[in-house]
Amino acid sequence: MARPARSSFVCQSCGGVSQRWVGKCPSCGEWNTLVEETDAGPPPGSGLTKASRGRAVTLETLATRGEAPPRIETGLVELDRVTGGGIVPGSALLIGGEPGIGKSTLLLQLCAALAGGGRRTLYFSGEEAAAQVRLRAERLGLSTSPVLLASETNLSNILATLGEDRRADLVVIDSIQTLWADALDAAPGTVSQVRAATGSLIRYAKQSGAALLLVGHVTKDGQIAGPKVIEHMVDTVLSFEGDRGHPFRILRAVKNRFGATDEIGVFEMAQQGLRQVANPSELFLGDRDASAPGAAVFAGMEGTRPLLVEIQALVAPSALGTPRRAVVGWDANRLSMVLAVLDARCGVSLAQHDVYLNVAGGLKISEPAADLAAAAALLSSRSGAALPSDHVYFGEISLSGAVRGASHMTARLKEAHKLGFKRAIVPAAGEIDLDAARIGIERMAHLKDLAEATGPCQ
Q1: Collapsing DSSP states into helix, strand and coil, what is residue 403?
Q2: How, if at all, do strands 391-393 and 295-302 pair?
Q3: Residue 410 buriedness (CB in 10 A; 0-12 / 13-18 / 19+)
Q4: In 188-284, beta strands by DSSP E
Q5: Are the beta carbons of 166 and 120 closer than 8 angstroms?
Q6: Above pLDDT 90, what percent of the chain?
Q7: DSSP of 418-446, one letter per residue?
Q8: C-alpha dist (Å) from residue 353 to 110, 122, 310, 321, 339
Q9: pTM to 2 decimal places
């Protein structure tokens, strides 16, 4: 007699399991996220059934040399940069992003580029009908591309399709939250369904050598929806970011087993789809008003790529008991720290002023070296005097007011020189190849030096 299926309550946010329903998840503290799911056994082909006697495996030492993994160059230079030189066959990639940011457009262009090079690409759409995908392809000018398309959400049907005919080079699932397995009595998008579908598809990719690309939904906090174990199962996790008010899109690698995780790819959303941006610094500085006070150019680094972006600040007298602090594109905690250092170490108090800080172009900066550029923009707005238009700034500010060194200083300066900047305000510490930089250098040891250089505050 078959054992009756047991049910449990699974948190859709963290994957925690509870034997009874409660309003608040005991694992992550989220409210109303527990959903009843029935454990009816693993889906077919998942490899989760009771196994027979195992076999001994071959052991190797750390000194065993292996060849570098081969890569499939996609033809999209920005995507190849983020993935570490191309997509590794047999690997699984997960890409997440807000609705409407351009994930499906990017993947359709990727499939068309690989199919045009003779690769066999399969696109399974679970959210749109095949006719809708064709309309997007026609708008992008890719309607003649030999991409194989299907609108399917049944996991068994997808695995059966992949098992017949010759092996695919790239399989795209858009999206993983829409798939469902017959053997699981749960709705699509639940933790058990997403985990089972991901495990089965990754097993196929490892066995066949086909590259697997999964699209994941995101929550209101910007995190990929579903259990966190999904991000551990895949080889690469990509995040597609952007502001709907700006045409720029940033592709980041959050996790990458075959490359670095600090590289970014820059795209611009145009009428014909996503256009690659070879020189993002020139694009982010294209509409800069150099004569306005409160604007400083920051020479930053994103992975191995130097990136120049404008940091804008507005300091205005406040009529409120608690002045406002608004930040877009930067860490609000670092702004509070810079304001405190200006007050305590430089004698520049902004306690009675509203402070607004913005990173132009919709870019998000997390590098500590942006402290000096943010401080320069704040001081410029406070004094009402514009900073020199041919100056760039970078350096981390400590709580003592000292300006600390930054990494890749020569690369930052070379990028600034290439874009026509004449002088750089840099930390006093740190090695710089002056012959390679070819730009005027002004060393700064303390933030007080910058406050004195910007002139008296009004």
Answers
A1: strand
A2: parallel
A3: middle
A4: 211-216, 236-242, 248-256, 264-270, 273-276
A5: yes
A6: 55
A7: HTT--EEEEESSS---HHHH-SEEEEESB
A8: 49, 57, 22, 10, 11
A9: 0.78
